[in-house]
Specification:
This protein is mainly beta and 440 residues long. It folds into 3 domains: 191 residues, no CATH class; 171 residues, no CATH class; 48 residues, no CATH class. Helix content is 10%, strand content 37%. The strands form 5 sheets. Strands 2-3-4-5-9-8-7-6 form an 8-stranded antiparallel beta sheet. A 7-stranded antiparallel beta sheet has the order 1-20-19-18-17-16-21, with helices on one face. A 6-stranded antiparallel beta sheet has the order 23-24-25-26-27-28, with no helix packed on it. Strand 25 and strand 26 form a beta hairpin. The longest helix has 17 residues. The N terminus is likely disordered.
């Protein structure tokens, strides 16, 4: 997976720090929460550890972990100072906590090199294991777990690296007895979806806020047809090809997108794996003005304030490019952009971000709306519930059809929202007016 950067987040400040934990003879294990990642730096390092809150930690480093459920004696801190504020790395963030009577120390640093050791652990490890952290990176986050045990004490360390953003993580523990401790499970329990960079996208439009739970029943299904046979009234389905992979899209509902063509604003994605259907992921738009679309083997979704292009990676549907806008209390807009193409967008200006935002929206508008088959076990079809005569700015009348969900569809298929000012609006289209604007 290529490195992903966020244009609205500064690349981070650098820190050349050796996080020390009190040198011991090789193989000697230190105990206590201060042992595995001691906050008392050596005489050569003057950078102090500063107490911070969980919110401050998340602001320092995106995709920050949390204290696992059940943890006690939680303490957040960061290492800052002249070294921490240089150009390559952001401050080193540390979380100390106690879980099931054992002391743990977790660390994270945005901008650290993939080979950096930020743990502060100085031991000769007796065992090394390559691991996969199922809660991180769409279940594909790889890491390493190491441990050592002597007659009197034990220590263990789990490290992983987020190549999308460039964040090094470590979780360590040291105690007289660590038998029964699964440090990888603890690391998984520390994943916090709310700290994902995409949480800046408005919840009602992101389509990926909280992790989606698969709703389609595929138990016992050997083919896509068998999945379709089990779908309930009101849902929809269609076949598509994404990145050369034949997939089945299952929507929670469908709507008439004009001319009797049924569209959807969300879809669970399935493909064949080892000869049987398997779940690949979920995509969603922000409303019926922005139905799921396909172009050049990519899935497109959008909302009033975001657009997203999704692709297949490691048998998962992932966001390969997205752009969105946010507004502060004064209505000032901020544009943000993220891509998985390997480029560095950390120094982009707001003007450049807006161009990316507009370009991705244009791609979405040029994509083909996915045409779904509406499931109706009783044979009933879905139709619009009424029409309304509205006017162009020059007074020319036209008709829009009520979709029954607060939106209206024009003859060209554009989906409009009716505002309190009795103006119909659709992205990329001229406004339509309930009252003739040129009438006297």
């Amino acid at each position: 997976m290529k490195r992903k950067t966020l244009c609205a987040i500064m690349a981070g400040l650098a820190m050349t720090v050796a996080a020390a934990c009190g040198q011991k003879d090789a193989g000697t294990v230190q105990t206590g929460s201060g042992a595995q990642a001691n906050t008392q730096e050596s005489a050569q390092i003057a950078n102090p550890w500063v107490t911070i809150t969980a919110e401050e930690a998340a602001s320092v480093c995106p995709r920050m972990f949390k204290a696992p459920d059940g943890a006690t004696e939680i303490a957040w801190s960061k290492l800052e100072g002249a070294g921490a504020d240089s150009a390559a790395l952001s401050p080193l963030v540390q979380l100390n906590f106690k879980l099931d009577g054992k002391d743990f120390t977790a660390r994270a640093q945005n901008g650290a090199d993939e080979t950096a050791d930020i743990s502060g652990m100085n031991y000769e490890w007796a065992s090394t294991e390559n691991v996969t952290l199922s809660a991180w990176g769409f279940g594909n986050m790889t890491g390493k777990s190491v441990s050592v045990t002597t007659e009197s004490e034990s220590a263990m360390l789990c490290t992983w690296y987020d190549v999308e953003i460039g964040i090094a993580y470590s979780l360590s523990a040291a105690d007289k007895d660590l038998s029964g401790v699964d440090i990888v499970s603890v690391a998984n329990a520390m994943y916090e979806p709310a700290n994902e960079p995409t949480s800046d996208i408005p919840d009602d439009e992101a389509g990926s806020g909280e992790e989606h739970v698969m709703q389609t029943d595929i138990a016992g299904c050997d083919t896509f047809t068998q999945i379709v046979d089990k779908l309930t009234d009101g849902s929809g389905y269609t076949n598509a090809q994404v990145d050369g992979t034949d997939v089945l899209l299952v929507a929670s509902g469908t709507f008439d997108n004009g001319g009797g063509s049924m569209a959807a604003i969300d879809a669970e994605v399935f493909f064949y794996k080892d000869g049987a259907p398997a779940y690949m992921g979920y995509v969603a738009s922000g409303g019926t003005s922005y139905p799921v679309a396909v172009k050049d083997g990519k899935l497109y979704t959008a909302g009033n304030h975001f657009a997203r292009k999704s692709a297949v990676m490691n048998d998962k549907i992932v966001s390969m490019e997205e752009a969105w806008e946010t507004f502060d209390g004064n209505g000032t807009v901020t544009y943000l952009y993220r891509s998985d193409d390997g480029g560095d967008y950390s120094t982009m200006t707001q003007e450049e971000c807006k161009k990316k935002f507009d370009k991705l929206f244009d791609e979405y508008l040029a994509a083909d709306v996915a045409e779904f088959n509406a499931v109706s076990k009783n044979g009933d079809s879905q139709t619009a519930s009424g029409t309304l005569t509205v006017y162009h700015a020059d007074g020319t009348p036209t008709t829009v059809a009520d979709q029954g969900d607060g939106t209206w569809v024009a003859s060209d298929g554009a989906i409009y929202y009716l505002g309190e000012d009795e103006v119909l609006r659709a992205r990329g289209k001229e406004d339509l007016y309930v009252n003739n604007p040129v009438a006297h």
